[in-house]
Amino acid sequence: xxxxxxxxxxxxxxxxxxxxxxxxxxxxxxxxxxxxxxxxxxxxxxxxxxxxxxxxxxxxxxxxxxxxxxxxxxxxxxxxxxxxxxxxxxxxxxxxxxxxxxxxxxxxxxxxxxxxxxxxxxxxxxxxxxxxxxxxxxxxxxxxxxxxxxxxxxxxxxxxxxxxxxxxxxxxxxxxxxxxxxxxxxxxxxxxxxxxxxxxxxxxxxxxxxxxxxxxxxxxxxxxxxxxxxxxxx
Length: 234
Known about the structure:
By secondary structure, this protein is mostly helical. It has a single domain, classed as Four Helix Bundle (Hemerythrin (Met), subunit A) (Up-down Bundle), CATH 1.20.120. The chain is 75% helix and 0% strand. It is built from seven helices and no strands. The model has no long low-confidence stretch (mean pLDDT 88).
């Protein structure tokens, strides 16, 4: 992407992020539980926690799709896309665990509870940390790309497992949308202000993912070109 377009994208992303922050801390009305009680202000972290989780899922889907393309076409660009998305996705997944722990402390009194959503989210994070470690452990570029692609495809099963965990098993984690298999319904978000804030935050984090992905991919492409150039001079 041209440098000017990248700067515009970065500016738009920064504007979205600042707008999202403003809406969470200044635009949202006082939040109440289903019984009418005033919710602790720590609940606002949900507006970061959920978009972060969805964005991490999207990043890992890019890893999955790029891995398939890598095995099919054996083009280094797909390997670059996969590892770029994986590195960004791991950061988002870590932030999901951190924000989830903060919310858990305020809601349940503990930073960590071994329940399905938290456990599968941790497993998801560890799967893609392992993916990155695997890439570091293999030196030969073609073998690295091939094995990483296989891992990126197989490891993607952790994404739907994490997403569906509170629908498949009983969990203390709130279900915001849809219904669980055991009959519980989601709490939902009522009110246009709450829904608009959540949507703006989601768009902001998706824009951030796109921006980081393009910058990271461009950097990795330059590194690959330098590696090939050095190899050709030997």
